[in-house]
Amino acid sequence: MMSQCASLIPSDKLRAIPLQTLSRLLASSIEATFQSGTYLSKLGASCTLAQDGSLSVSTAFNDSILAMSASPLFVNIGPLSRLTARTISTLMNVQPREGLLAADAALITLQNVTDRVKNGWEESLLGGLTSDEMTPEVQALSTNVWTTFKTMLFSAVMISKEVLQEAVYVSPTSYQPSFDGAKNTAPSDLALLTLRSLYNLSFVVYEFGGVASLTSADQGGGFKELKETFYVAGQLLLNAKCSQVCAHIDCEIELPFVAMIFLFWTVGTKTTVVQNNFQLSFGAA
């Protein structure tokens, strides 16, 4: 109910709420919406491949997907994501350091959830089938599963975009190293977390044609928020000095990863990238 009414709460009233506590509760709710990303863990055991090559999936698994999709949290994921984004961005505006830490925790949650979903999908037989290879029953299940994927992507983009846009205006003094050893989160950290989550969901993004091929806002249509999220993440990384970025990330691993993401963003043709023995295709064919 609160998430549905969030847009009606004036900013000064929202600031009176303990935003750090609220952000933790909202992040936990987002995680619970998608069962921490583990809802595909039983998909492999639920699939049976017949001698004729046809695939069947247990009714129990299909029922579990339908139950998750019909849950109050899932049905209200839009308002819930908007309230999460607004809460963190407001906290970042009022208490920048605490806001950055809250954003870091929420985006780590999204990264972990999307990572588990990616792994579950890659390990399943269903993930390797085309619609022509599916029975009507399996195709219906696949449609339901893909609804959860797209909903997850929209939620991640909705939260990440607003958080990153607010992080652009945070003063560097809010995340400079402290002498007490307390953790500090820089905007570039948030950008990397966002790109990792979108990397995990790249097989979903690919269904939209890839970021570079999305319809621009002035042409109407398209998932422009996704492209804007990539743009803001890129700006935060480019705004960070090389020494600052290298202090926060493993250059040997992460910088090629960032380069790969930007290749995905800027190149309109289909691009195949191999990293850590994992092959991934980006862009539009």
Broad structural category: mainly alpha
Give a quick account of the main beta sheet: strands, pairing sense, barrel closure: 2 strands, antiparallel
The structural domain count equals: 1
Uncertain regions: pLDDT < 50 for 5+ in a row? 215-221, 265-285
Radius of gyration: 20 Å
The helicity comes to: 55-70%
Number of helical stretches of at least 4 residues? 14
In short:
The protein has helices at residues 2-5, 11-14, 19-33, 43-46, 59-69, 72-75, 77-94, 96-122, 136-167, 187-200, 202-205, 224-239, 242-248, 251-266; strands spanning 47-49, 55-57, 271-275, 278-282. The chain is mainly alpha-helical. Helix 3 (19-33) runs antiparallel to helix 7 (77-94), helix 3 packs parallel to helix 8 (96-122) and helix 8 (96-122) packs antiparallel against helix 9.
Characterize the structure shown.
The chain is mainly α and 285 residues long. It has one domain (2-282). Helix content is 62%, strand content 6%. The strands form 2 sheets. A two-stranded antiparallel sheet has the order 1-2. A two-stranded antiparallel ribbon has the order 3-4. Helix 7 runs antiparallel to helix 8 (96-122), helix 8 (96-122) packs parallel to helix 10 and helix 10 (187-200) crosses helix 12 (224-239). The longest helix is centred in the middle third of the chain and has 32 residues, at 136-167. The protein is elongated and about 65 Å long. The N and C termini lie far apart (43 Å). Mean pLDDT is 79; it is low at 215-221 and 265-285.
